[in-house]
Amino acid sequence: MIIDINFVGLIITSIMASAVPLILASCGELITERSGVLNLGVEGMMIIGAISGFALMTVTGSLIIAVFGAMLAGVLISTIFAFLTQTLITNHVATGLALTIFGIGISAMIGKNFVGIPGKEFPVLFGSLKDAIPFLSPILFGHSIVFYFAFALPFITNYFLKKTKIGLIVRAVGDSPDSASNQGINVRLVRYLCILYGGAMCGLGGAYLSMIYTPQWIENMTGGRGWIALALVVFSTWNPIKILIGAMIFGGLTIIQFHMQAIGVRIPVQFLTALPYIVTIIVLVVISRDSRKIRLSTPSSLGKSFYKDN
Amino acid sequence: MHKIFIRSLVSSLVFLFTLTVSAVAKDVKAAFVYIGPTGDHGWTYQHDVGRKAVEAAGYKTTYVEGVPESADAERVLRQLANSGHDIIFTTSFGYMNPTNKVAKEFPKVKFEHATGYKREHSNVSTYAARFYEGRTILGTIAGSMTKSNVIGYVASFPIPEVIRGINSFTLAAQKVNPNIKTKIVWAFTWYDPGKEAEAAKALIDQGADIIAQHTDSTAIVQIAEKAGIFAFGQASDMDKFAPKAVLTSVENNWGPYYVDRVKAVDNGTWNQKDTWHGIGDGMVVISDLDSAIPADVRAKVNQLEKDLASGKVHSFTGPIYDQKGNLMVAEGKTADDGMLAGMMTYVKGVEGDIPK
Questions:
Q1: ipTM, 2 decimals?
Q2: What is the pLDDT of residues B250-287, one digit of tens each?
Q3: Which residues does residue A169 pair with via DSSP β-bridges, in sequence order?
Q4: Is B165 near chain A, with CB under 8 Å?
Q5: Residues of B in contact with A25 (CB under 8 A)
């Protein structure tokens, strides 16, 4: 095997592409959780986004409608969750799990007529610059707009939570809904909006899979990525930059283990396939071991229902 | 007099009606048990295409999807047998024991188990397809058309069916091009488009210019199309997903067998059988060859397809050696079905070890 710099660039590009759905879903879920709501329905919202995006692309032929439609579908399905947990005050865990089961089921039902249809080509940006600079060009150029958005999102999220007033409100609602409510913040409204935003990002993550990454629809095509996104949020201790690192490590090891198999490295394949899960958790635990920081960034009332007494 | 006339008219009308109904929907009811969703566009999808052929032949069918290979399978089978189904097809290897167990309880119901070998009761038949014959064709095309001499192969799980496919493919490729290497990557999934795509990308980055797959989704051929290399479709004709990349596909064609067996129940001629059909019987179908295949290769492949169908050529004809150089099949001999059914060693020329 020849290790040249272009080869490394290609691998990094593959890793980044595989990390996109995880980053999108995790950053969405992060905002939801920072407002104190634990939504375990990430997988369900992603698969709904995947089928909605694919179906709209096939039926309308418009990629813009499809992308926004997938986000809207994520918003709609998360509205059910928001209504149940915020208005009817149901248990977050049980409702989230139900949302996942519901999403997988209904996507399969809608998807029946879309199996076996090829997707459309998604346009890329800066495609002409793809070979301009060795190593850097394939990493920087020739990707879809969703790809660039995904890599900007952790930084935007970080800025939003730390530097903006609305970000502070979201965190306040997640840490102490009672105090926030006493300050005149409409806790329920903030949580509603955070849940809907999470739904939109999960929908976009799912649509990336069915429209850009592997343009096709088959049942269960998210393949558990929603659960990994959920785990990334927790193990990154609710820090968007660490989500980015975690998603890259996870995607990276998945791809590198395939390379190791192809080269013929004599490590049991079962161990190689388990590697991404093990290493991602270890790395995130190690980089987040400062208990004071964990206490600061963990939303104190995560998963607890908020009752407003009046 | 008048009353009697009306009564006989009504009864004859009813009789006529029953006749018409029985002519449209025949009495035999068939049931299908699937391991995956019919929307997988792979294994289960192709079985369901077969089921629809039975329906088109005028029989009533039922199917249950996503049945786990556990005690759940027994429950589903009992329910189907109890609800008036005359023949039940169980379409995954893991249904072997449940099928035989439930067959004992319902001696009047016929059971057909795919890819298994246990026929413990007279009402159990087994059937499978010789997909390896199709892979002999793919190997021949790949060996003739590769320029890098590196062929990628995305595998699912280390079971005899998959190992047999890898061996058959590699033997055929070596025959036309002794310098080729088959690089195997195990995805440990039957269908996860994302994972399959990543496996394919890794193989392409490692220099593979043709990719074969033993997983079900169309992600791999799409990746091949983007990378400008060649690939082969699996289970169904995948040409429309990657018109330039797909050279041909090996299609699973269960319909004729299913119709045949249901008709046999209808005629009362059903008997216990062990069926292992290949290209010759039409259970394995080679899709149209792509125009990118050169004329000489095309001629060779067409001839090979005919010879495999007639039995003149066997995919596993000796001398065949394993990776360590031990003789597996002697010169002039062919591997028997017992050896094929339990094949768990790579032939010479395949790189790497079988995951244990």
A1: 0.84
A2: 999 999 999 999 999 999 999 999 999 999 999 999 99
A3: none
A4: no
A5: none
